[in-house]
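S2.1 Query sequence (Glutamine-dependent NAD(+) synthetase)
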Amino acid sequence: MTTNKATEMNINDLGFLRVAASAPKLKVADCDFNTNEIKSVIEKALKEDVQIICFPELSITSYSCGDLFFQEALQQKALTSLIDLSDFVKEKRDIIVIVGLPLKIKNSLFNVAAVLSNEGIIGLVPKKFLPNSDEFQEKRWFATGTRIGEFNVDINNEVVPISSEGMVFTSPYGNFGIEICEDLWTPLPPSSEPIMQDADIIFNLSASNELVGKYKYRKSLVLQQSARCSSAYVYASAGVGESSTDLVFSGACIISENGRLLTESKRFSLDSEVIIADIDITSLRHDKLVDTNIIYNASGYLIEIECPIVPISPEKMYRSFNPYPFIPSKGEENDSFTDLFNIQTHGLAKRLLHTGVDKAVIGISGGLDSTLALLVVVKTFDLLGYPRENIFGITMPGFGTTDRTYSNAVSLMKSAGITVKEISITDAVMHHFDSIGHDPAIHDVTYENSQARERTQILMDFANKVGGLVVGTGNMSELALGWATYNGDHMSMYGVNSGVPKTLVSSLVRWIADTQLDNATSKILHDILDTPFSPELLPADNEGKIAQKTEHFVGPYELHDFFLHRMIRFGDRPKRILFMATLAFKEKYSSDEIQKWLRVFYKRFFEQQFKRSCMPDGPKVGTVNLSPRGSWRMPSDAVLKIWTDEIE
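Output structure tokens follow.
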């Protein structure tokens, strides 16, 4: 949960919807107690600006009633309790409530979910699949909802629709469908149908008892269904008050979004449990937009019911935003970094095998990107059985090279056991300045780019000389910002880092240093990690230290990587990115700083597309990539105005 003034705006207009799942205290067959407890939970949810709340299966009566379901007294009490709850919700006005009850229709009893709003009972969804083995004997009491057809039920003089085909409840801020417990466990969960008819969230009213190991499997079903459907999944299961005779329930509530767990309840609690999350409707819809297998069924047969949702402007968010979306979470580092390193390595290996080349040429600056690229090349040569002497590492000191980076470059190459070459670019660049009539005292873009292009020329020509392949070192963040000299460091024969953003470069190198290398080499890598990012194209300061620091010019890479991830992965508009970045980095940057660098990001991203349109091949390592051959197709001359206007 995050609190910040940035959230003091309509979060629904920003694409979020606040939902909750609850496992309330209850007593078996005590409708009054259960209804009062549901009301109490609703009151608490309203204080947290919850817009939709879901309760467990048969939450009005309890699930464990057995043959008492056949008793007319219980059936009638459940119905009057539903009417009482509906009147209560009408008074509250600002919340949608989903509850479960047994409902007699004609001469059959159904296990249904009832949707309540300020307009009354707006829809009934029957359970389709009834478990009937081991401890579950639902077919003894209930009829399957698959054969109920489609008609209206009269409840307290209200006409309420019910349908065996299901329903989609629609609003300007998000649409939802409903399934009940066992429906999730079937080969074809009914929730898939509302998704194909534009639902964003599935609510599941459940009464799933606990067995050793069952919770983990049940959670995996919830996560998988939300991922498969590119949806949110809100699961509310019966609490310990349901426990009776041979069964024990735990109140397992789960909210997931597109395969990611947002929150889960404390299990085996004696109190009513409520979990709340802000669902990112916009991101879910973006994923369905780009996934052409999820096609909106415009002529769908599910009933669509308009659902009144009152917009909210809360002071806090029930959601966190990861400031480092490219970096693996704790516990997943080894697997993720191993995969990443292998993808880079095997991508380069394929290129070498295909071209029949057994030599590589790489520029080593003593900076982070060339360090990672060299580590990839070394591992690739070891994999293919090529001698490391066939790797030609070339350090090319120029006007801005410092002793620290030069020393680290040479030490790293020697430690790796590759062939070390040193070729100074100073004389060649000075001669070039003379040829084009440039005053070397003027430290402008010509001064800088001439050095970068000279280095690339050396690498290319040396590769031709030895019959090698030039391995590029530039990372994806630089490609996004255009922080590369066109036909300079922008160019190579294969760019192993082209799919790796700067924040991930740092994390990967640190992991390699800590887990893959000897102490001496690890020490070199840690000093490189502590070195400021710089192209070293301007002279050092009076103390011989780096004067040209990249992040002073383009802004913090951690911000730009966050912007890049939100823009490319989710298609977010600027005001959403600004909102989320303000929350994610609230301890580190002010809103004004974030706004400033977001403006820089968009300006550079649009202006520098022409460099990405002709970037070299390189391995795709994650969901965000800027290759024009598969992941990102953008005209080089697109106008920026729409995006910058929204930041002002």
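The chain has two domains: 2-317, 333-647. The first strand starts at residue 2 and ends at 3.
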